[in-house]
Amino acid sequence: MISLMPNHTPTNAGLLARSLSAVWHPCSQMKHYENLPLVPIARGAGVWLYDFDGNRYLDAVSSWWVNLFGHGNPRINAALRDQLDTLEHVMLAGFTHEPVVRLSERLRDLAPAGLGHCFYGSDGASATEIALKMSAHYWRNSGKPGKTHFISLQNSYHGETLGALSVTDVALFRDAYGALIAQQATVPTPDWRAAEPGESAQDFALRCAEALEAHLQQHHETIAAFIVEPLVQGAAGMAMYHPVYLQRARELCSQYGVHLIADEIAVGMGRSGTLFACEQANISPDFLLLSKGITGGYLPLSLVMATNDIYRAFYADETARGFLHSHSYTGNPLACRAALATLDIFAQDDVLNANRTKAAFLNGIAQPLRDHPKVRNFRNTGMIWAFEVDTPHKDFARRCFALALQNELLLRPIGNTIYFMPPYVIAEEEMQLLVTRTLNIVETLT
Predict the structure, then answer these.
(1) Which of 175, 177, 316, 359 has the largest CB neighbor count within 10 A?
(2) Shared domain check, 105 and 218
(3) Helix, strand, or coil here: 266?
(4) What is the pLDDT of residue 374?
(5) Would you give the distance in Å from CA 232 to the centre of its chain?
(6) Same-domain check for residues 123 and 262
(7) Rounded to whole angstroms, how far apart are CA atoms 11 and 282?
């Protein structure tokens, strides 16, 4: 009889070899792993990841920005164990269940005003696809079928499926798959690093909003929506901008009859300093996208929150007027239960206020890093920090990643931009270790 269970104990070397022979890893050139090996991970606890030899790595990027309350969080673990004993999954077409209803109700109460309905997907790119389709379908149902185009910010990133790539302005992806996607227009980013000398972040944001206004004025009859990452553009190297841009974008989209899609996949769930980044501009978008941290980094889940007006445009007798989109695991009970446990932790631990204290502490101890002669544009929004390194190394990102591992850190630079997005449970001594060893890395690579 053939056993389906492994008959060996994993080791770093053994798991590495097996992974390279069977797994095609994401966002990777597999050949590079010949010189920069994969890191086998055996377990996680708090902000730390451990390999099979007992080496540890401080997860300074929250495992691709998803882990909010540490690996192996006991409260999320307990919620999932309880849910396993009742319902692991049921399809959401024609059925419903308690976790998805509770999560939708809680998010409706927490989100900016007017976002009354949640539509669920599996990941961030799926949420982008849903919002784009829902926006265009809304306009079709509303008698304006010509509104099928979208605009996004320069250097934007909204996912890597074909629809999401059409509003993603990253050259690597655009060049590789450009022939397959419907290219959409971009407008200037309000990233304050591009401001003129002496120009404030607010004034620069308002100047960029003038370009958005000019574009909408000329093309609004064919534009369905403007999609934007509020306050921080992640893949652009943690590009940060003033919230006044979102205020003007909301005004302009309302004026010209264009939906505003707030992609809070990365910056929502407290990462920007408020539960939702849009709160800092005091606006309500037409669509709000959430994923990544919504389940505390445990299970894939995404959702699109839409206004009551948008929902009503699909409410009819004809099936063709309904929103025609689905995922097999839409609203999975386990994922929803993890999300509910995550929201419980926010409420019970007063996380947002605690994060403000932690951010102030890290900013204080990071002064030597900020003052380093090779560090540029040190910046912070909520629990996100970033800076550029003036370095002669063209392969800086890979060198930094490898050196960070030797220093017990998981860093994943974007070009020459080093950023921190640690789990919210990071302690002061762990923040000190992160800053001190990152400073050593900068010294070594400059």
Answers:
(1) 359
(2) yes
(3) coil
(4) 97
(5) 10
(6) yes
(7) 51
